[in-house]
Amino acid sequence: MRILLVEDDPDNVNDITSNLRKNYILDVAYSGIEGTYLSQVNDYDVILIDSRISDMDALELCKTTRSSEVIAPILLLGEPDTSCDYKVKALDSGADVIVSKPLNNEELNANIRAMIRRNNHNLKDNTIKVSHFEINIKTYQFFYKSNEINLRKKEFEIVMHLMINKNRVVSKEELLDHIWEDGICSMSNTLEVHVRSIRKKIDEKLKLSFIRTVKGFGYVIKDIC
């Protein structure tokens, strides 16, 4: 599951990311302009927008996101004294839920889970399916035709990210950024080593092409493997 956080307060970013990165792939936009761009070029399961971002009115950002046909549910992080009038305007601008600060992690996580359930009609019982492959994002299990294939943690996260973004070429830089939180130099061969290990467990054993390399661009998993 992939979430976009639009927040320009470093303290709030640290608090929210330390909570959400335990369970989700998280992108952070430090401005409304960056948030607008990321929401249009990537597929997100939920978008979190702080109502006090400095470079753009948050409600205008909601409107812009919706006018760009982005369907991901929007959770607006409101101030403690957010008025009913503002909440009405936020909902009319495209927000789906308003959660007031200071944030309670359990409440925030519950709202995110509820929004994902409502929005992702293809996700049942925490599973993602591509062709004969199925992955359970809660139990960290991976199956081919109901037969489990054991993957190490980073291998699982690579497969999960590619399956979530099936049919889209995912760049090496994006995978490094999402899978290794502390960041790894793009010149490192760490990702290639993990992909090679995945291919030994899947491609070579099953005699098929699961993760495909798009030379000069990245990797992709397609519906027909």
Descriptive notes:
The protein has 225 residues and is α/β, with parallel strands linked by helices. It folds into two domains: 118 residues, 3-Layer(aba) Sandwich (Rossmann fold), CATH 3.40.50; 94 residues, Arc Repressor Mutant, subunit A (Orthogonal Bundle). The chain has nine helices and twelve strands. Strands 2-1-3-4-5 form a five-stranded parallel β-sheet, with helices on both faces. Strands 6-7-8-9 form a four-stranded antiparallel β-sheet, covered by helices on one side. The longest helix is centred in the middle third of the chain and has 15 residues. The mean pLDDT is 87.
Chain-wise SSE layout:
Layout: E1 2-6, H1 10-20, E2 25-29, H2 32-41, E3 46-50, H3 58-67, E4 74-78, H4 84-93, E5 97-100, H5 105-119, E6 127-130, E7 133-136, E8 141-144, E9 147-148, H6 153-164, E10 170-171, H7 172-179, H8 190-201, H9 203-206, E11 212-214, E12 218-220
